[in-house]
Each structure stands twice: as C-alpha cells, then as structure tokens.
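Below is just one:
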Amino acid sequence: MQVTTGTVVGGKIIIEGVHLTEGSVVAVLSREPGEPFTLSPEDEDELLAALAEIERGEFVSADAVLESLRKFG
C-alpha cells in the first residue's frame, strides 16, 4: 500500500514517479484547486492502518449504517 498524489489532465489522473500495476484498485481523495493536501508521517501511518482494516473486512457497510439510522429515525 502506498500514498501518492496526482493531477487530473484531460479527465485522467496522472501520477508521476510511481508505478501502478495494470488493474490496480485505487482510492481517490479530491480537493479544491489551491487547497493544500499534506499528511504528517503520523497521519499517513493512521491512514494506511485504516485502509488495512478495510482490506481485512473490518468495517461497517453503508447499508448497515443506513439500516441502523432507520431504526432510530
């Protein structure tokens, strides 16, 4: 797992300096133009740990969250 940044050019995300295998699944976080996106080493570690939890199936699905909200609504 790695964290990197890219730029949208012609509707495609261009990532320089990082090789991604064809068919790789990626997550994209978008920010507004001019809005900085930086992570401290601690934030990056926390993000990578959270992504690892998701890959292990340790998460609550959106359907489960919506169902629990219906019960309280």
